[in-house]
Records
---
Amino acid sequence: SGWEIPNNTSQGSLMVFNAMNPKYGGAVAGDWGPAIRAAITDAGSAIIFVGAGIKTISSADGNGNAFTLPNAYSRLAGSGPGGAQLRIAVAVTWGIELQAAYSGVVDLELDITTGGSATYGVGIDTPASPGSAESCYFERVLVQKILSGTLTNAFAVGPTHTGASNIDIAYTTFNDCRAVAPTNACWLLGNGTGGNILDTHLDMCFAVQGQYGVYADQTAFTSTNGDVYGHTTANFRISNNAGKNCLIQGVESETS
């Protein structure tokens, strides 16, 4: 079902489940979605490895997403942007949605391509209100629209449950992530209601060719050491920071 990698953390051993394992069925009529989702279910709170190369996703899961990770400590991983490319060719709400604490996405490229659309490319939200999904992380992830696909927001943190102030999504980190050509925001943060969606941190991130680079809606964030430019309305929009401090430092920001 997987292989074990020694891990010296307090959580003991770390399991990796390879979605390319023949037991998960491989591509069905060119669609890798069912195989990867089977590995996610099998893995529980572990790492799901999607391998290298281009993998087309032409079906949605039961949540209307390409992939949903409901378990804490789970991680969807590839071989790096350009090496592991998931191409969404179907209408979904989320490309990849994390729903629980300490989960993550690393070393992946998510492309919304012809025939595909996504309201949110990659990010985190809770399935219900109240809910909690803290300390999630995204590292070396590229989200972009290609060809005639439709991408509304590339990355998102807690964008739903409008009016709910009891959503705990804090300490979310994005490191060396890239967002290209959404119709709205490269990063959409918050749900328009002040509360516990806070302490979102972007470092060495790249946001280009959206309407907004970062759109913070009743929440605060830090953005350091990256590039944010080429947006039609604003590179940064802070729609009320909910009484918290925002920090933008060391960022190359053109046409602000």
---
Amino acid sequence: VFKPLRDELDSFIGNLFIEKTIYRSCIFGRPGSGKTTFIETAFTLADPDKNRKSTDAFDYYHFQIQFGLKNSPLREVAIADYKGQKPSQVILESSPEFFGAEGSRVINAILFIVDIVPRKIDENGNPLNDESLLKWLSEGNILEKIKLRVQEQYQYINEASLELLLTSLHSKNLKSVIFAINKLDIIDKLIDRGYLDISQFQNSKEYAEHHFERMSNEIERACSDSNIDFSKSTISAKKTDDLRPLIRRLLTGGN
């Protein structure tokens, strides 16, 4: 009887010192999926490096952004970018100062990011630019390379990891979950250059969504069970215009 009451009291006391006016989001995705690129593009008026604090498992960012008219008040936004390899680290190494106490979280939104094309690096450890990546994709079996990348994403985000994450991070404060499929621009270039045939699909967006249909459905089902707003997007994390609707939805609780 007393332990649940003590745990609840500990959570309440721990959260007393957390700034509640800050809108907090957690970004989760396999390394190389474009999370950092997303943050840098989405918050172009801010300096991500200047506002970043890092731990072994997370990069934490803090921004002031403005919605609507030029004279609208600035809004405080904080983002936790999980950069590890094990989803369990999100629970084990999540900072109470950012996420709130376990059992009384203060996270407002979660963004899951996957990519349909892998990130490749050169001999110096730097990511290949688009032209070099397209060349690598075109040399060999493109469909097999895409298939393998999609399989890697399913190994990372699946029913088990989703249950673990949402059970730990869920609270009445969690308003929105977004699922984003990244690197649609690379798929478009493969199609335009004749390397990829998607004639059985209406467009590249439908092609990308088809590969992640099961994952999207699993996330949507989990959100529905907890009355959390869910949406999905196909994007290029490098394109500001792609990200504007997603950012607005992410930071307004899906409204």
---
Amino acid sequence: ALREEAAVVRRLMACYLHAPLAVHLRRNSAEFARTLNMSTRMVFGPMFVTILGSLADVVSLFVVAGVLVLVDPIMALFTAVYFALVGVGWDKVIRARLTEAANRLHHEAAIVFRHTVQSLAAVREVKVTTSEGYFTEVIHRQRRQLLPSYRTIALSNVPPRHVLEVVMLGAPIAAPPYAFTTKDTQAATTTLGVFLAGGFRIIAPVNKVLSALTSARNGMRALEQIREDLTTFECYVVDDDDDTRLPVGPIETRDLR
């Protein structure tokens, strides 16, 4: 993942540097800095790692599901539908908030980058005008405005496990009527024990899968920005494999029109 991230950053940097000057006059360089430093880290960091880690939990889910199907196919179907409804319900509850937080963070992070870079680049003017406190307060205020979005994204992976644990309590209430009307007491008790053990066993994998989906949703805006910039600017990139040295001698500009 880290090598892929470095490769993507290299491609983006080549795109930005080879793009015509008119592109840089239309777009602030802070947007490029945001994509290079923040968007790529979000995609190849939490998003990539969480999704990759959830693949093993998907295998665990299928193994437990297979055992439950062998014990009682009808109750296994009921369990699958039960957790599917929980997952869909949780996704509908949190989707709008996560999308809004991710979009806002993506947009306003560029503003913070812009003010930070411009303040440091113009440090001589800042000192001459003795406006250090003003620009410090501006950046501090902008970072504070991002706190709700950061908080929403950071805490989005915490509630699913607790929600699943609470919802799992509904299984012992809904399952016994079916089990005890279709089986004898001993078989029904054994079946319920197996399903309760399996249900609590899959809470952790289901939680990780939901967390992976949440991380994917958080990183979608960043991924879209990377794809958009690569699609838009990669046509300007030439084969620069051998063009890795600085020009020899001074650089002069003549007859610029």
---
Amino acid sequence: AIADARATGKSAGVELGEAKPTVLHTRFGDRGERIVLMWSGNDGVGVVSKHILSPTDLDHFQTMVAAQENAHSRLSPADGIVAPQVLRFSDDDRVFLLAAIAGQGFEVALLDCLDDDPARAALFTRMGKWCAAFQDPNAHPKRGVWKKGIRNKLHDIEARVPQLAEPDLLKQAIDTVRGLTPAAGAETLSGWRHGDLHIGNVMISADTVTGYDFGPSKVATLGPDLARFWIEIVAQFYQEDALGVGQIAVGADMDAF
């Protein structure tokens, strides 16, 4: 990944330097393998490289690049809402370079203000503004809730319950979700879906909120994006008894968001 990023940078006239880059994000497993690195560069200008190790098909790689370009073109740095520009990409090596991303990871920013209620609310409000600007739900019609899809997903999960470590807890969760399934004719928001929205893919600075590492660009229902983001926060930062049945976040955090 390091060698391919340096080669791609050289072809674009971007000197990445000899210093070892910082690892921003990695993924290894059945859902694909990738490495995201932050480079300081000899000229002091930061560059981010993203290397797709698998799947290796060209169409998949090009959809990732296109998703990043789409996000960059639609967001306004003047408003502090950012998706970094693609500087260069290599189809052969499955690597692309992004303009510098300012700030620190969302996880670190949240840790810094975890016990400071006003600062914590301000952080979630900024994140909510980024999501609203990127997803742009007001520009897209609402969609009907796909109740059959929810039922099928619950059935698939239920079939695997005996193989899991906490079968009783998962059965309780399945029953809770069934009880929350909306009535016929219910609608939900749609907009541009990030595709991989979690706290490792968001950077926070004093002036900007930056999202990156997008999945394929498409307009779809927004539940999967928002659920992924909030479930990770709940798992890492909330006490077990912090939420009531059906809640995905503490009320004050969700209100700020």
